[in-house]
Design a protein that fits this description.
This protein is α+β, with helices and mostly antiparallel strands and 341 residues long. The chain folds into two domains: 198 residues, Fructose-1,6-Bisphosphatase, Chain A, domain 1 (2-Layer Sandwich), CATH 3.30.540; 118 residues, D-Maltodextrin-Binding Protein, domain 2, CATH 3.40.190. The protein is built from eight helices and 19 strands. The chain is globular. The chain binds 6-O-phosphono-alpha-D-fructofuranose. 6-O-phosphono-alpha-D-fructofuranose (P6P) binds next to helix 6.
């Protein structure tokens, strides 16, 4: 029912009821494997942590949180203070959810086994603050997460709690990201479409803003770091030249969440090919490529590593990297035509 909300600036019609992410998930709950309320309680750990993170990101220029913490993480990257804060926020908020048994983070060398009880059915792998090298220059950064079901063996008394953690992306039961940009938007899928929720700071809630997101079948942007063009396998250069001939524009933020979010909403293609520095690609399979590939496919797009569907790749290690080509049906079909047979 539409309702009027009068403000000092005159009447403001609210044409649609406000639906928070918690309300939406409870409506979806019956489709999510697990006891009722379990997924919404689990996801509330992520929404709480990301609200804490966005509050810091929004004030980064106002506190001494800017600048590096001069520590180096498992990736060999200088850790920014916000990385550490974001990681601790997620570890804390998710660690107190008794349905979570294992946490694995880009910022931690090893996964963390929290509890062995049979109720701790889920493992969550995440990148707490993707694109953190952009923090000091006020470019969008983000949090990426993937939710997996733990194996029975890993929950058995005396079992290895990390057994079965290295699952292919087609086993994900949910995945999502939060982009801290001009607004803070949570996008997730549980395999029943892709939905977006914008954080309304006036009520401190993520509110449904993009229901059933569909990636356009064709876009007008390609997104790749062309500085490494000489390192790419030859067919990547051939592909980019073909897109240029078709008058595509180039857009590259250098923050996966920002480049992905634009591709999801506007269509086009994002590529991080093998390079000299990263012959197996730079992006991480478990907590970057897999969640983005799940979302892309649910929205009608596709994602592969240059040859193989991302979601079918069998991870060999928690921080494994992969090349990534992801985007709209049209652009992905054009890439296949450029690929050597
Ligand atoms: P490059 C950010 O450091 C990141 O991990 C992704 O967010 C981003 O897509 C990529 O690296 C950018 O890498 O080599 O183009 O700076």
């Amino acid at each position: 029912m539409a309702s009027q909300l009068n403000t000092e600036k005159g009447a403001r019609r609210m044409d649609r009821p406000i639906i928070t992410v918690q309300q939406y998930i409870l409506q979806e709950q019956q489709h999510f494997p697990g006891v009722s309320g379990e997924f919404s309680w689990l996801l509330s750990g992520i929404t709480l942590a990301t609200k804490m993170i966005q509050a810091k990101v929004r004030r980064a220029g106002l506190t001494d949180i800017l600048g590096s913490d001069a520590q180096v993480n498992v990736q060999g990257e200088i850790q920014q203070k916000l990385d550490i804060y974001a990681n601790n926020a997620l570890l804390h908020c998710l660690g107190v959810r008794d349905s979570v048994g294992v946490l694995a983070s880009e910022e931690n060398d090893e996964p963390i086994a929290l509890r062995t009880s049979g109720r701790a059915k889920y493992a969550i792998v995440f990148d707490p603050l993707d694109g953190s090298s952009n923090i000091d220059v006020n470019v969008s950064v983000g949090t990426i997460f993937s939710i997996l079901r733990r194996s029975e063996a890993s929950m058995a008394e005396g079992g290895d709690p990390l057994e079965g953690l290295l699952q292919p992306g087609n086993k994900q039961i949910a995945a999502g990201y939060v982009v801290y940009g001009s607004s803070t938007i949570l996008v997730y899928t549980t395999g029943r479409g892709v939905h977006g929720f914008t954080l309304d700071p006036s009520i401190g809630a993520y509110v449904l803003s993009h229901e059933h997101i569909k990636m356009p079948s064709k876009g007008k942007y390609y997104s790749i770091n062309e500085a490494y063009r000489d390192d790419f396998p030859a067919h990547y250069g051939k592909y980019i030249d073909e897109l240029r001939r078709q008058k595509y524009a180039s857009r590259y933020v250098g923050s996966l969440v920002a480049d992905f979010h634009r591709t999801l909403l506007k269509g086009g293609v994002f590529l991080y090919p093998p390079t000299a520095d990263h012959p197996n690609g730079k992006l991480r399979l478990l907590y970057e490529a897999n969640p983005m590939a799940f979302i892309a496919e649910q929205a009608g797009g596709a994602a592969h590593n240059g040859t193989t569907r991302i979601l079918d790749l069998q991870p060999k290690s928690i921080h494994e990297r992969t090349p990534l080509v992801l985007g709209s049906r049209e652009e992905m079909a054009r890439f296949a035509e450029c690929r050597p047979t």
